[in-house]
Design a protein that fits this description.
Elements (H helix, E strand, L loop, with lengths): L1 H23 L10 E4 L14 E5 L11 E6 L2 E15 L5 E6 L10 E2 L4 E9 L2 H8 L2 H43 L1
Helix pairs in contact: 1-3, 2-3
């Protein structure tokens, strides 16, 4: 029973760490390696649905090909990241590659072109529905339920283990003192 309890404890701890990493990845200095984004529109349906978490790795523009799904800064709103498919690669008047994009579920291509500076990376995979959990985690209630309560339980369990260790040590020393006093 103790082994099952210990495995469950480590599983919950690991799950908390993974969820925290995904929620915080846009803020972490891991952007050069991998970053996650929660999809908030249906523009990439059926390939990527609303509520999915898309994992993106940094990519050089020479690595991006037609058909790849990329994450880029919205040319009309620098605070927003868009995840769309590259439908064409063209050269601008400075002979620099620019990317024409389109959401799979959209009827027409995006009205803008994406410059290399706007590209955040190339999609490597997506996990459906996990974005709902991440967005809920960002609310006070979600944070308390998904992270706070399990973390509190883990803390209480650790305090219990420390207390048991202290009690064992007290019993051991009391027994030693009694044996020493009797002899």
């Amino acid at each position: 029973m103790k082994v099952i309890f210990k495995i469950t404890e480590w599983f919950v701890f690991g799950l908390i760490l993974v969820i925290l990493f995904m929620a915080a990845s846009p803020l972490l200095p891991t952007k050069k390696f991998i970053i996650s984004y929660v999809v908030s529109t249906n523009s990439m349906h059926p390939a990527i649905d609303v509520g999915s978490v898309v994992f993106v790795r940094g990519a050089k523009t020479t690595e991006i090909k037609t058909g790849d799904v990329i994450a880029f800064t919205n040319p009309e709103n620098a605070k927003q990241t868009i995840i769309h498919r590259v439908i064409a690669i063209e050269l601008n008047k400075n002979y620099t590659e620019i990317f024409k994009t389109k959401g799979d579920n959209n009827n027409s291509a995006d009205a803008w072109t994406v410059s290399p500076e706007q590209i955040k990376g190339k999609s490597i995979f997506a996990l459906p529905y996990l974005g709902y959990l991440i967005n809920f985690l960002k609310t006070p209630r979600g944070f308390a339920l998904i992270l706070g309560i399990p973390a509190l339980i883990l803390i209480i369990l650790q305090i219990k283990k420390i207390r048991e260790g202290i009690n064992e040590e007290v019993e051991k020393r009391t027994k030693e003192a009694i044996e020493k006093h009797e002899s």
